[in-house]
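A protein record pairs a chain with a discrete description of its three-dimensional fold. The shape at a given residue is found from the number at the same position. Here is what such a record looks like in full:
>
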Amino acid sequence: MTEAINHNFELLDKLINDDQSNNSVLTSNNYWMNYTKRIERHIRNADLNHMRTNYNLTKGFAWGGVPKPTVSNLYIKRITFYFLEKLFPFTKVANEYKRLLNATHRRNIGLLKNVAHLCLEEINQNFQDIILTNDTCNGDAEDVFEYNDYNISAEWVTHLARAADLYSQNQNLLKAKSLLEIGPGIGLNTLAHFALNKNLNIVMNVDIPHILYLSTQFLKSVKFIKVIDYLDFEKIDLRDIGKDEKIVVQLPPWALDKVDINFDLLLNHFSFQEMEKNIVSEYLALLRKKINFAAFIQNRSTGHKKGAGGQMEPVTLDFIASCFDKDEFIEKDLNPKYASKYWDLQKDCSKVFLKKKN
């Protein structure tokens, strides 16, 4: 039995309205524009208790539910598509297409669970005080397997592998008490770092409004953490948080200039490559001054494929590295042992930028 995930339309409305009314460069860009328009049609009527199998909601996370055709945002094209889908012989073709997709999806989920179990077993051998929770499965995860009497989401293990790669090769970072992540997805990476780093007590997640809303409501269903959402952020002084509390702060990008504390770690996994160069530069100009220990960046070395989602120019890993002042940071390549072995992650896409001691 998983924990309930509830809507908060007051929060959703504030996120959307503030996004539309502010002129910050740190807002939704071309790459995410079509996804944003699509998700607005579905999010209010969606049952968040089944969000992990709702492809219309989770397509932006690159997983979740049986894949479906991407329907145009233009009303006339959508109506035409739905009309044709119900006409013979299109119905026969569509049904066969759906049958094959369902069969392939079930097979892929089975493979994912088997690989995740092997990966988690190896990580647990090297991180024996790992903290497990059933809450990785909240939202009706379909990739659930049992491990040491816990129900575990296989997708969560992919995030755990990245965190394990970071900490196993930089064990001093296990002293980190706080981290900030740009583009955390649904929040599984947050739970991965809490699982491996017992000292961690503050996580701040920053994302575009619709995805932030989904991750906020998902993380509120996790029993061992307290979530401070965008509605409550300005009512809380983060410097007063107790060392034994586990706090997650969920913010849209334009609220970053109101954050008045530093963070031990900065994380970004493959979302900088979905932005324009000026947006990445803006983020890092603002955040590198707030880093105490290190930044962990994963990005395709050559950036996203040219023109993806209307992107003007690919953001390469070298470009991101150029945003870190060599007088302040030591650049270090990271070999993704677990993520490469089990999830075939490329070995040239991970860097750690260690803050130099004064």
Remarks:
- DSSP finds eleven helices and ten strands in the chain.
